TrEMBL record:
This is Bcr/CflA family efflux transporter. Signal peptide: none annotated. GO terms for cellular component: plasma membrane. GO terms for molecular function: xenobiotic transmembrane transporter activity. It comes from Sheuella amnicola.
Length: 381
């Protein structure tokens, strides 16, 4: 399940060090190369909606076979792309294949565990989500130095082939026959309309999505802020990026331990308040002109620690009591998460301000929204 969950961050982060090389190799602009990342996020956001109903009808394994096969072919297409247009199209197909891993891994967790145990299991998956962004750029950079940018996609292709073989040999089908839903346009629309009208599901899903939006805003704005504005080296930037990911990992594992004693609904209020405090501190100090790199990093690390609580616990609460709509619920949850992050990243990229204000606005605004929406979720029957 961890490997399936890691498909998303690995596909996003591993090729980031190769952006200049891709631009040179394909005679493309940097904006065109950056667009391949935006296309990937859009494809992953939309494709998740298809895998939910498929997983509820055909089980968890069959959709994975098709999705991973598509992911393998698309990754190979990225490796041999003769121009930026083919690379962009291949990245879109790669996202459509990779989206299944995130949807089905969450559904499998809920198939096996109740809400509290699911939150603990999702915290372990958050560990993978935290480690992947640290290791992926480092591995990508080494592969880039040894083989060039195409070698990164060759490595992704080979890894996906191994993952497909592992799924076929190790993974056990977890969908019970009594929870199978007939597949039709009417049933798909009915399930999603029921979920959208489920205020508790939407509120918990969006509360977690606002935390993810903050992370994407940070990912987009941090290179320009830390390297161009504060003037730190690329190596130091990598260290700061790793420290934030380490805080996310630590938070998720502390959450997993605390879930042995407390329920997710008990942990969420405290985590949301602390997360908002970190965000508003960053915004207030930035607006007052007294923020420094050290202070900003402290606020960001505190946010990441809290997100390690908020992410898995809000997901577990959103997926609770979904019954035979679990696959669709997991898909819609993923769409909310990726779409919110893509919007936040897009807004940050539009800012002409090179200082800390764009990041601080996202940090303060999204964490406040997460707290407000989380409060609404807890009051829903």
């Amino acid at each position: 399940m961890g490997a399936l969950t890691a498909i998303g961050p690995v596909s996003i982060d591993m090729y980031l060090p190769a952006f200049p090389s891709i631009a040179t190799g394909l005679n493309a602009t940097h904006s065109q190369v950056e667009r391949t990342l935006a296309i990937y996020l859009i494809g992953m956001s939309v494709a998740q909606l298809a895998y939910g109903p498929l997983a509820d009808r055909y089980g968890r394994k069959p959709p994975l076979y098709g999705a991973l096969s598509l992911y393998i072919v698309a990754s190979a297409g990225c490796a041999i792309a003769p121009n930026i247009e083919v690379l962009t199209a291949s990245r879109l197909l790669q996202a459509m294949g990779g989206a299944a891993g995130m949807v089905i891994s969450r559904a499998v967790v809920r198939d096996h565990y109740d809400t509290q145990e699911a939150a603990r299991a999702l915290s372990m998956l958050m560990l993978i989500m935290g480690v992947a962004p640290i290791l992926a750029p480092l591995i990508g950079g080494q592969v880039l130095a040894l083989t060039g940018w195409r070698g990164i996609f060759v490595l992704i292709t080979v890894s996906a082939i191994i993952l497909l073989w592992t799924v076929s040999r190790v993974m056990v089908e977890s969908l019970r026959p009594d929870r199978v839903i007939p597949l039709s346009w009417s049933s798909i629309l009915h399930n999603y309309s029921q979920l959208i009208r489920n205020g508790k599901f939407v509120a918990f899903a969006m509360s977690g999505a606002m935390g993810s939006a903050t992370m994407f805003g940070y990912i987009v704005s941090s290179p320009r802020l830390f390297i161009d504005y504060y003037g730190i080296s690329s190596q130091s930037y990598g260290l700061l990026f790793g420290l934030n990911a380490l805080c996310l990992i630590t938070g998720s594992q502390v959450s997993a331990r605390m879930l042995k004693k407390y329920r997710p609904v008990q942990l969420l209020p405290w985590a949301l308040r602390a997360m908002m405090l970190a965000g508003l501190s960053a915004l207030g100090l930035t607006l007052s002109g007294s923020v420094t790199l050290t202070i900003l990093m402290g606020c960001m690390m505190a946010f990441m620690f809290c997100q390690g609580f908020v992410g898995p616990n809000s997901a577990a609460m959103a997926l609770s009591e979904q019954g035979n709509r679990l696959g669709s619920a997991s898909a819609l949850l993923g769409t909310f998460t990726i779409a919110s992050g893509a919007c936040a990243g897009f807004l940050v990229s539009l800012a002409s301000e090179t200082g800390p204000l764009p990041m601080a606005l996202i940090l303060g605004g999204c964490t406040t929204l997460s707290w407000l929406i989380g409060g609404i979720a807890r009051r829903r029957p």
